[in-house]
User: Fold this.
Amino acid sequence: MLHASRLRLILKGFCMGTADVIPGVSGGTMAFILGIYSELLSAIKSFDLIWLKSIFKFELKVFVSRPHFSFLIPLGIGIGTALLFFTRVVPLPVLLQIYPEQIYGLFFGLIAGSIIILLQEMLALELTEVVPFILGFVTGFLIFNLVPVQTPESAWFIFLYGSLAICAMILPGISGSFILLILNKYVYIFNAIGYFQLTILIPFALGAVTGLVVFSRILSYLISKYYRNTVLFIIGILVASLWVIWPFQERAYIMVRGKARLIDSTPALPTELSSPVILSIGMIMTGFLLVLALNRFAVVKAGSAD
Assistant:
């Protein structure tokens, strides 16, 4: 029987994988919402030089015990299940075209609630601490307003796509899928995932592993040494991401392999209070209240454990 803690990690991984499929929503953001972001960075960092040396020294005990497999394996199962489910069984990118306001509404509420929770930790801000927030906001806003470009499909560039996408994926606020859209490789990569095209997936995975190893250490260092400034920078990115997550958008699409793909969107206000608009507002409130409830549950649980 599956242990309850592992089942929870699988479900959290599924939520992260679902977020990663949606352009504009970050798996890192979902990890923040679910309260496992620091643990995720620590787990990634557990693949260090000592672990690497154990491979060449045939030290099986170190190879097996040093990485945080008890955390990463169930989380990875959840992420992988979500990626396959939402590319093969229920194509979420297609649903985004049919019900964009409702799906984006849910994630808008989740991210808005996360911002409120993070800001609660940053009470009594000093004037100088506004700077990292502004830098984060400007960085996010510039990235979210980039125009898609044409990029090559050679193995070296696929490796680069993997590195860039995974860095964005673990940084709350910036979506790996959105970066792939900017590089005009969203359909290319997710088709490869859905149909197990190894000539694409292998260099992409190697790039993702490289990006994880390097970027997770940078993020972990910044959080440990400059926690408040790093969190404020992340909050700035999250606030900027609301620009593209706002459910009511004037969207522009291009046709890629016979399918419409989102390339640009501009926030707008609904012109009438129709049923889809009411449902979208309901999804915003659902996401907002859900993340606040999850945070409240985590706080109560932590208090009872003390």
